Amino acid sequence: MKSFRYLITAAIALTALAAQAQDVAALLKATDKYRMSADNLQVETQINVLNADGTPDKERRYKVFAQAKRQSLVIMQSPAEAGQKVLMLGDDFWLLMPNSQRPLRITPMQKLIGDASTGDIATMSWAEDYTGKLIGEEPCEEDAAAAKQSCLHLSLNASRKGVTYQRIELWIGKTRHEPVRADLYVLSDKLAKQARFVLDKPTAPTKVLEMVLSDQVSNHKTTHVRYLSQKERQVPAEWLNPMFLVRNPPLD
After folding, report:
1. Distance, CA of 184 to CA of 225 (rounded, Å)
2. Averaged pLDDT score across all residues of the chain
3. Could you give the residue ranges of the DSSP H alpha helices within the chain?
4. Cα 159 to Cα 161: distance, rounded to the nearest angstrom
5. Where are the domains of the chain?
6. Which of 13, 125, 147, 213 could cross-link to 115 by cystine, CB 3.0-4.6 Å?
7. Are 59 and 47 in contact, with CB atoms under 8 Å apart?
């Protein structure tokens, strides 16, 4: 009888875990829509770095082609980086320099500017890259006394190797599931950055306008990743081939 009860209890527990996993996957898909409105996008991105006292430090512009099946091409548009590109194909990242005939392997943690890494702008889907669990309902703001909105707290773990962060603690709106803030942990489980998300309409949001990254390790600067525009665009297949890109072809 005890064995039977144990089996029943174990079965119920497994069913509950499976249901929770499905719930988290559905929540992440809903949250992703605020960051990536279609499978294939062209995203004009501007990154501004501010010093600890709020004064401007650096600014860069990027054109990001975020494509289906974990593929992205980042074209650097500022004079200081002119001609450079980053290509992501699944777990593989390459940096392509204008005067080199050889793609350079890099990691998603490779710094672009400030606290923004290649993975921060080349990958925009949590549902594809993470699994996790629902911790519960909590205040959206870290200061519970100041919070006016309830969030769902998700604890996420990387489901593949080619991701920027090994673990993410994510808070999303309880009703509409928009991203609000996140704690971003690297492979050593050290808190590397904190992110907060600026949305277009606070009461009825439809998209993320900006991701603000705060360094938690050294320089205490803030990095503002602004999504200036998005439009659906599927790029030619050869644009996603590193050996084609090393020829430095025009990409219009």
Report:
1. 15
2. 87
3. 2-32, 118-122, 242-245
4. 7
5. 1-63+111-230
6. 213
7. yes
Put simply, whether the predicted model's pTM sits higher than 0.70 gets the answer yes
Residue 191 has φ and ψ, to the nearest 5°, of -70, 110
- Dump pLDDT digits (tens) for 41-60: 999 999 999 988 889 999 99
Q: Which two tokens stand for residue 103?
A: 């793609």
Pairing assessment for the beta strands 191-199 and 179-185 based on DSSP bridges = antiparallel
Low-confidence ranges of the chain (pLDDT < 50): 4, 6-21
The 10 Å Cβ neighbour count of residue 247 is: 9
Rounded CA-CA distance 215/217 in Å is 6
pLDDT the model gives residue 13: 35
4-32 tens-digit pLDDT: 454 343 333 333 334 344 599 999 999 99
Give the pLDDT of residue 144: 60
In the prediction, which pLDDT does 178 show?
96
3-state helix, strand, coil in the chain (%, to 5): 20, 40, 40
Cα separation, 26 vs 32, in Å, equals 10
3-class state of residue 114 by DSSP? coil
User: CA–CA distance from 143 to each of 34, 148, 226 (Å)?
Assistant: 24, 10, 25
Q: Structure tokens of 144?
A: 């519970």
**Contact predicate 227/233, CB 8 Å:** no
